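As a warm-up, study this chain.
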Amino acid sequence: MNNTEQCPCGKQKDFAHCCGRFLNGGDVAKTAEQLMRSRFSAYALGGYGDYLLKTWFPATAQGLTAEQLSQRELNWQKLEVLEKSQHGDQASVEFKAWYLPPGADQLAVMHEHSEFQRVNGHWYYVGGRVV
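Now compare it with the structure written out below.
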């Protein structure tokens, strides 16, 4: 992705100043929402399996590989954050993510409530519950 193109996460910022700064290793997400948006962008773009694995809470990432996570399996189109909350080092983000299923001509939506944990100043994705 060109650094001046709009970021896939929907924040209306260019990629370099939005999720690109996290995905390319220059910055660390300061909030769970930033982490969630950057992870969406990683899935939408593909090829960022190392980042996805690095930001996954180790206890819940067992069995996953960077190679596996780098595969762009769905054509992610749009992200909408519905609700977010934080209590100390625990946070949650509820979102809807639209994608185009293979061979389909109509968008489908995934509605998820994701949980995050902060450890030593770094946010990690713990897991999600599809709503």
